[in-house]
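Students often ask why we bother encoding 3D structure as a string. The short answer is that it lets us treat folding as translation between two languages. Here is a chain of 120 residues written in the first language.
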Amino acid sequence: MPDNYKDILSNPSNEVDQETLLLYLQNKLSEEKKHEVEKKLLESEFAEDAIDGLQQIKDKKQIACMVEMLNRDLKNKLKKKKRRREKMQLKDQPWIYIVILIFILLIIISFFIIQKSLHS
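And here it is in the second language, the structure alphabet:
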């Protein structure tokens, strides 16, 4: 899975990047850049709702820390899920094929021995 899917505020499209978004929330952008960010945010209802929620946080400096913590938790959960999925998969083990082949051969040999003893 690409790393950008694992970041909470990553933006694969033409949306606002994380650094600009954090600067916007901390009111550290010029008026022109602020207007550009707001214009992009209005294009997406999800982004607009996200900004509304982020603006309710009183200490804007905590947002970067929260994003980092959320990204770390998300990556850990994805790693655990991937490990669990890998454990559930049957590993390609050659001894399984050998046992199955021997079992099939024993069945075939048994069949011929039984057939021969019935016809004798």
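Translate back mentally: Residues 59 and 78 are 29 Å apart (CA to CA). Keep this in mind for the problem set.
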